[in-house]
Amino acid sequence: MSSTKRASLAGLAALSLILGGCSTTTPRVPYTQAEAESADVPGMPSDVRFYADAPAFVFERFRQGVAAQAQARHEPVTFLALSSGGADGAFGAGFIRGLTETRQRPEFTIVSGISTGALMAPFVFLGPRYDDTLQKLYTDGYASALVKNVNLLNAVVGNAFVDSDKLGKFIAQYIDQDVLDAVAAEHRKGRRLIVISTNLDQQRSVIWNMGAIANSHAPGALKLFRQVLAASASIPALFPPRLIDVESGGHAFQEMHVDGVALRQLYVAPDEVIYGGRSGAANPIKDLYILVNNKIDPTFKVVDDTTVSVAARSLSTILKREGRNNVLSSYAYAQSHGMGYHIAFIDADVPEPPSGDAADQFSTEYMATLFARGEARGRQPSPWLSHPPLSTDPTGHALTAAQ
């Protein structure tokens, strides 16, 4: 979600911390750190997930496997990262549609998604035949219904301001067995769909191999697939966390997973790969595409002199910079590893919602407008930029040391 939107919800998160002692939720089964580090999802193959801070060889093994199958098909490896953005995901959905309409859309070998990007990811991964579904996610009114009836009492006695599993039901409308089977078929071809959640117990990003889940044909595959999507998009305090069943050494327990954006806003590779320089293995990725469902540069706003406004704006500023750092690191990664770099993001002149209220942020009218802007951008002859904006000075004049 955008920095503004996340900040407005940050107040809800802070309040839930204050009221946490009043909760009447069921106590969780305790488990140790050692058990956490060796936990597996029952009935699933071992390759359904790894951690974003895992050693570089884990990711290298993952992408080299993709490269081998792509080479057999005589196709280049392309990677698309879909960022967080909440309702602003409507921009990305429109952008993808615009690419389809002008036949400028690659078939992405690997697609990653976080938060709203995770909700988009299966349909972007499956190609143009799901463009109508992608549009409906943001413009048919279902998304706006998710944030209706936000209730303070729910946070006092429960674990979120939205009491029912609205997000889970929303996802179930669109993710059915046919979608699961389609993802599994693409996985067998060598393409990969990955979704990122935050394991709140461990404070670590989890990289879920969604195609491996779909292709497992396990009885609980569809449930887990939906759970992971919901986890990645579960804004803390607004939506309930997802408790995912795992086991270690015969001990069954549940991990708590929330919005992937708690730790990062987009995902292209583990930190050790991004910041560790070139590895011994050849990089198989030819082109890296970054679709940011957000504005990258700082936005001006006269902040009210109140505790909530100052706190929200301060957190917004931190998150804005975090998102920009994610973008810049992806560019540096592409440059150092010889990849083509392509990025699209929401232009600075796109109007913000009229208020910070969730109802305004997720209004169908606002999302439809953003979808149209994204679609228009995707139709342009050169829809992608070859590098992110490297300066945030709105005047365009770099300050010298003498100044």
UniProtKB/TrEMBL annotation:
Signal peptide extent: 1-21
Presence of keyword Iron-sulfur: no
Keyword terms of this UniProt record: Hydrolase, Lipid degradation, Lipid metabolism, Signal
InterPro entries according to UniProt: Acyl_Trfase/lysoPLipase (IPR016035), PNPLA_dom (IPR002641)
Region (Disordered): 377-403
Gene Ontology biological process terms from the UniProt entry: lipid catabolic process
SUPFAM superfamilies, per the entry: FabD/lysophospholipase-like
Active site: 115, 259
Keyword S-adenosyl-L-methionine: no
Residue span(s) of domain PNPLA: 80-272
Pfam families in UniProt: Patatin (PF01734)
GO MF annotations, alphabetized: hydrolase activity
Residue ranges of the motif GXSXG: 113-117
Domain of life: Bacteria
Identification of the protein by name: Alpha/beta hydrolase
Species per Swiss-Prot/TrEMBL record: Lichenibacterium minor
